[in-house]
Amino acid sequence: MAYLIFSLYRILGKDAFEKILVIDNGSNDGSLSMLLDMEKNNLIELLVNERDQYHGPALNQAFSYLAAQRAKEGRLPVKDYVWILDSDTIILRKDSLQKALSYLVTSKSAIVGECGFKNERKLDANLWSLLVDPQVVWQPSMPLFTNGGAPSVLIQQTLRKRGIEIGHFPFMIDALVFHFGSGTVLTALAHKKMSSHIWYKWAKHWAPLGLRKNYDAEQDHIYRQFLRLFHSQCPVFDTTSLINACKKQSLLTMDMIDDLHKKGPVSHRIE
Predict the structure, then answer these.
(1) How many CB atoms lie within 10 A of CB 252?
(2) Which of 166, 22, 179, 23 is closest to 96 using CA atoms?
């Protein structure tokens, strides 16, 4: 989570978003203390659950909170969008969000994310980085995010049935967002003695497919370069250093990512 928040402020830039809303889902790894300090410093807004509500219910909680805020403010925004990001993602370029937003608008999609493909058939967009138009998705006639390992599938299926586009946008393929991946699968499989665990059957299905089992050399270099960038701004990895780093005005760039993009979109080069 620290890497993600840092990348939002120092690589994407605070002018690109209105707020960062974090759901702490009953964490017990010490991160809550860091998040509370970041909230006190007006870097994030924080909703805290005493126990793990799981991914889908936490997303419903976040969307309900944002909708209630808008209603309370009594104003209609020009246009609101919600960018869902897993805590194990990192933003790699300052134009990552703008590129995704432009694609969402031009493709007339309600959701854009990196989709899987099987026999040239587009599958659902992955939830780890999903840009959503809540004025389409968060409506009484739409289903909620569900429990289990794929909380947005029912929403995406409903949109397709209504003829509303789900856009494929190559967040990670084009080196715009880095995703560590497979954390949920591994967590669920760690409960192998608890076959009733909410994600166990889902994880058993996906783990043999080797989802992000091994990063290639290029991805490894990207991650290492980000770590060097992060530690140059946070030489001591503590909450105070992280807060101070996020508050700095200057934006940072990753040379390797810029060099990749000078060659053109990766998704076009590999076709």
Answers:
(1) 18
(2) 179
Distances 257 to 130, 177, 215, 220, 234 between C-alpha atoms, Å:
21, 10, 16, 12, 21
Region for residue 10 given its phi and psi (left: phi exceeds 0; alpha: psi -120 to 50; beta: otherwise): alpha
Please report the sign of the dihedral spanned by the C-alpha atoms of residue 263, residue 9, residue 55, residue 31.
Answer: positive
Phi, psi of 228 (to 5 degrees): -65, -40
Give the N- to C-terminal CA distance of the chain in Å, as an integer.
33
Catalogue all structural domains in the chain, each as residue range(s) with its CATH number. Answer: 2-181+214-269 (3.90.550)
Residue 222 near residue 175 (C-beta atoms within 8 A): yes
Per-residue pLDDT reduced to its tens digit, 205-227 = 544 444 444 445 667 778 888 99
Task: From residue 13, give the alpha-carbon distance in Å to each of 157, 205, 252.
Answer: 33, 38, 9
Cα distance between residue 59 and residue 173, in whole Å: 25
**Confidence tier at 153 by pLDDT (50, 70, 90):** very high
Q: How many whole angstroms separate alpha carbon 100 and alpha carbon 79?
A: 15
For β-strands 177-179 and 109-118, DSSP reports them as unpaired
β partners of residue 167:
112
Backbone φ/ψ region at 175: left (φ over 0), alpha (ψ -120 to 50), beta = left
Q: Could you give the C-alpha distances from 189 to 51, 121, 153, 209, in angstroms and in order?
A: 20, 29, 21, 14
- Hey, what are 65's tokens? 């909170």
pLDDT tens digits along 29-62: 778 999 999 999 999 999 998 876 778 999 999 9
CA atoms within 13 A on the CB side of 131: 26
Angle between helix 31-40 and 239-247 (nearest 10): 40
| Amino acid letter for position 8 | L
Nearest CA to 44 out of 52, 36, 54 is that of: 36
